[in-house]
Design brief:
Elements (H helix, E strand, L loop, with lengths): L1 H5 L3 H5 L2 E8 L10 E3 L1 H8 L2 H4 E13 L5 E12 L5 E13 L2 E7 L3 H7 L4 H11 L1
Parallel strand pairs: 1-6
Antiparallel strand pairs: 1-2, 3-4, 4-5, 5-6
């Protein structure tokens, strides 16, 4: 999946999901969806990602097995640039991934809305204000 994301082939990334697979974003904020139901919702969500973020590299990747044979925990760091601002970004992710018959059944992505806002070019003062409200 990461190789396909780096290649910016979001259609192929979406094809990794089961037709009724779920993507969850428990820390999503604002207008970002918390749940995507089914491959086609995942496809629609990912379709414009390359227009927003230009992921260049995965700087760290750790895969941790769980006691469930179909589930792993993946920690990874993406680096690249924000398309709108050309500013560099770095995003850390923790994903709990459950696979059935070689396709993603459940993808639970614990990304940081504050890091995403910073990557998108939100002014530092606004981010600091949000962090104080959350703390």
């Amino acid at each position: 999946m990461i190789d396909l994301m780096l290649a910016k082939d979001m259609n192929a990334v979406a094809n990794l999901w089961e037709p009724d697979g779920i993507a969850e974003f428990p820390f999503a904020a604002g207008s970002s969806p918390r749940v995507l139901r089914g491959r086609e919702e995942v496809r629609a969500y990912l379709g414009h990602y390359p227009d927003l973020m230009d992921m260049k590299k995965v700087a760290a990747l750790t895969v941790r097995p769980t006691d469930q044979t179909d589930t792993i925990v993946v920690e990874w760091t993406a680096t690249g640039r924000t398309v709108a601002t050309s500013r560099p970004y770095r995003m850390d992710y923790i994903v709990v991934l459950t696979v059935r018959c070689g396709l993603i059944a459940l993808y639970r992505d614990y990304w940081s809305p504050l890091s995403a806002a910073a990557a998108a070019g939100m002014p530092a003062g606004a981010i600091d204000s949000l962090e104080r409200k959350i703390s």
